[in-house]
Amino acid sequence: MDARLTPREDSRSVLLGPAQDPPQSPSPGNLQAARQDSKHRTAQDAGGPPAPPQRKPANKTRRLMRRRVLHVLLLSDLDQVNASRVASVLCVSPSTLRRRLRAEGISYQQLLDQVRRYRCEKTLAQRWLPGKCLAGKLGFSQPNSFYRAFGRWTGMTYTQYKRRQRQGSAGTAQRLY
């Protein structure tokens, strides 16, 4: 038998076994009949009532919401973004966004803070900016709010960080996902 792949075989067929034609999907008109037939066969095979439809695990959905919010924030202009705009982009209401994030154990503000820190460290690794300029780019309304957040993130003042970066011992940007 030749070890080379034929044009029809791809990596999935090699991993999953010989290539087979995919089953024909029912036409839209026969979809209801196919569902009923499927339920009937399952009920007969098990000797009981049909099994309830299977749901995706809630944890996966929750992780997806966190990632989706992070993705939107990373692509957004932070001085223009707010929770209701992010919710609108994700096609959910602001209260649904808050509820789903709370169920995951995180808030919108915490995610925004992570993105701000990430962007701050990325920017400062590339070039130095005055705190006022960086505060505006990161969406802080006041430079003092930025300086407080910066101290919380790094454990040092902006000036101390600047000195340390010049010495070459500043940390790298954290990974968000």
Structure description:
The chain has 177 residues and is an all-alpha fold. Among the domains are: 52 residues; 52 residues. Helices cover 60% and strands 0% of the residues. The chain is built from 9 helices and no strands. Helix 3 packs across helix 5, helix 3 crosses helix 6 and helix 7 packs across helix 8. The longest helix has 19 residues. The radius of gyration is 26 Å and the shape is elongated. The N terminus is likely disordered.
Outline? elongated
Quaternary state reads: single chain
Radius of gyration over all CA atoms, rounded: 26 Å
Helix count, per DSSP?
9
The major pleated sheet works out as:
none
Low-pLDDT residue spans: 1-26
Overall pLDDT, averaged?
A: 74
Which structural class do the helices and strands define?
mainly alpha
- Total beta-strand segments: 0
Cα distance spanning the termini: 45 Å
Residue fraction in strands = under 5%
Helix share, percent: 55-70%
What are the secondary-structure elements, in order, as H or E?
Answer: HHHHHHHHH
